[in-house]
Design brief:
heterodimer, A: 118 residues, B: mainly beta, 11 strands, 0% helix
Chain lengths: 118, 109
């Protein structure tokens, strides 16, 4: 089946530092990758959608200068949380989809990255 | 607006059957997804319905009624490992998933 990996699985950083999270599709090429954030006991919140080779599309309320997304290849997308603050502490999850409208392929999720900002 | 409603929490007994309901209102409709999410982990895909009716997959079945904007996930022969949150998501006309808040299912021995 389709496997998506994320690295790191957890990270603790000081306030004001930047953190990079990698999302890789291991056995398929992902034309579209999604970045979600999930706070405790809440549902997934879509942050942005990124297509390989183009700029990410951010959801309303998500600061694109704070959450930098790069989708440089069909197997790798990165999310950089710049100048992280304690309120950015959350569970960040990426997902990948094979085709543009291959809805039956679904989104395959990475294992998530738990970010704690002190 | 777009809205997904599902119960916050349900409790069931090991070996029993439980039905988790979901109602949705989205701009356009391209299918209804169910995902399972264990605490601290990412969601895993369970089912996809785009046509009316019941889709059975082992112990899990999913039902869709497009005219009613309604779906349910049916879990049979419950096992302790089924304790998790179950997320309902509707795909809108832009092929974006609109997520419900999830139903936390607690299984008791």
């Amino acid at each position: 089946g389709a496997v998506v990996s994320q690295h790191p699985s957890w990270v603790i950083c000081k306030s004001g530092t930047s953190v990079k999270i990698e999302c890789r599709s291991l056995d398929f090429q992902a034309t579209t990758m999604f970045w979600y954030r999930q706070f405790p006991k809440q549902s997934l919140m879509l942050m942005a959608t990124s297509n390989e080779g183009s700029k990410a599309t951010y959801e309303q309320g998500v600061e694109k200068d704070k959450f930098l997304i790069n989708h440089a290849s069909l197997t790798l997308s990165t999310l950089t949380v710049t100048s992280a603050h304690p309120e950015d502490s959350s569970f960040y999850i990426c997902s990948a989809r094979v085709g543009w409208r291959e809805v039956t392929d679904t989104q395959y999720f990475g294992p998530g990255t738990r970010l704690t900002v002190l | 607006g777009q809205n997904i409603d599902q119960p916050t929490e349900m409790t069931a007994t090991e070996g029993a059957i439980v039905q988790i309901n979901c109602t949705y209102q989205t701009s356009g409709f391209n299918g209804l997804f169910w995902y399972q999410q264990h605490a601290g982990e990412a969601p895993t895909f369970l089912s996809y319905n785009v046509l009316d009716g019941l889709e059975e997959k082992g112990r899990f079945s999913s039902f869709l009624s497009r005219s009613k904007g309604y779906s349910y996930l049916l879990l049979k022969e419950l096992q302790m490992k089924d304790s998790a949150s179950y997320l309902c998501a509707s795909m809108d006309s832009n092929y974006q998933l609109i997520w419900g808040a999830g139903t936390k299912l607690i299984i008791k021995p």
